[in-house]
Write a structure and sequence with these properties.
- With 309 residues, the chain is mainly alpha-helical.
- It has one domain.
- Helices cover 73% and strands 0% of the residues.
- The protein starts with 8 loop residues before the first helix and ends in an 18-residue tail after the last helix.
């Protein structure tokens, strides 16, 4: 996620870094060079190029702008839903840790403290394993640091490691119930927190595994490309020598909207505009460790070049 706050006029006009232009510049450059070629051929009479009227481009441009707007909104809705789900994950992990501290009681306080500590660490490991699943990467050192070797050996053979961690957390709660450390009513509340984590995970997996239909995306890509390539032939008679500049601006706008829709469609990746899952997981990690009295907590994730991952 890009976290730059001060958008000066010079930055807005001239900045390329973090701009969508870094992804679409070959297409924009091609249309600008094509427009320049058409303009020079027409202006100097080197070659008569068949030109069109602006009417079809005006009509198609309006329709294309509407379609691109709908698609960008649909992609942003997926992004925002993903952020809401991770906001719920932050809340439910805090709630679960607080419930463990309040609801579990035992005469053997040392054993109970170790049990709580282990379960909270497993919760942190679950969050990191969930992040790895969404980003389609193997379990990293952050997840391995908080999961026991026995649990790691078990979940690495599973198709869905974080779901296996949730199952292990449920079994730990059952063990506490059998030992008489938690009452039935409180066990139901703790299981409700695990159920909420399962619901959040399912919602994020739905977003990650269900892309916008290919046919819809392909149609938008094709219409945008045809429109921007043919645009110089339709506007030369109206704007003359300004054709390359006008073509550049319109191509930048349409190709940019198209590319932004692609980028935010899957909000859990490593793109600069994706959700900062590393930062969210680290914040959960810090909060939960401090809730159980841990003094040596890791530092929050810092942006690198205005990008927070």
């Amino acid at each position: 996620m890009i976290v730059r706050q001060n958008l000066t006029l010079s930055y807005v006009l001239f900045a390329v870094r973090h701009s969508i232009l870094t992804k679409i510049w070959p297409r924009v450059l091609f249309t600008a060079l094509l427009a320049l070629t058409v303009t020079l051929c027409e202006h100097f009479g080197w070659l008569r190029v068949a030109t069109l009227t602006t009417t079809p481009f005006a009509l198609i441009g309006v329709a294309l702008g509407i379609f691109l707007g709908f698609r960008t909104n649909a992609s942003y809705a997926r992004f925002w839903e993903g952020r809401q789900l991770w906001g719920r994950m932050v809340n439910v992990t805090r709630t679960f840790t607080r419930q463990l501290d309040l609801f579990l009681t035992s005469d053997d306080e040392a054993e109970l403290a170790d049990f709580k500590q282990a379960l909270v660490r497993t919760t942190i490991g679950y969050v990191h394993a969930f992040r790895a699943l969404l980003r389609r990467i193997p379990l990293d050192e952050h997840a391995r640091r908080y999961l026991s070797p026995e649990l790691l050996a078990e979940i690495e053979a599973r198709r869905n490691p974080p779901n296996a961690v949730l199952q292990a957390m449920g079994e730990s709660l059952r063990t506490a119930w059998r030992r008489g450390w938690v009452h039935d009513f409180h066990l139901s509340a703790l299981d409700g927190s695990l159920e909420e984590m399962t619901s959040i995970q399912g919602g994020c997996e739905r977003i990650s595994n269900t892309p916008v239909p290919f046919s819809y995306n392909f149609l938008i890509h094709r219409i945008t490309a045809f429109y921007c390539v043919l645009l110089p032939f339709g506007i030369y008679d109206s704007v003359g020598l300004m054709t390359p500049l006008v073509s550049f601006m319109i191509s930048y706008a349409f190709f940019g909207l198209d590319a932004i829709g692609d980028e935010v469609e899957d909000p859990f990746g490593f793109e600069p505009n994706d959700l900062p899952l590393d930062s969210l997981c680290r914040n959960i990690e810090i909060d939960l460790l401090q809730m159980v009295g841990e003094k040596n907590t890791p530092a929050p994730v810092q942006p690198v070049g205005d990008v927070l991952l």
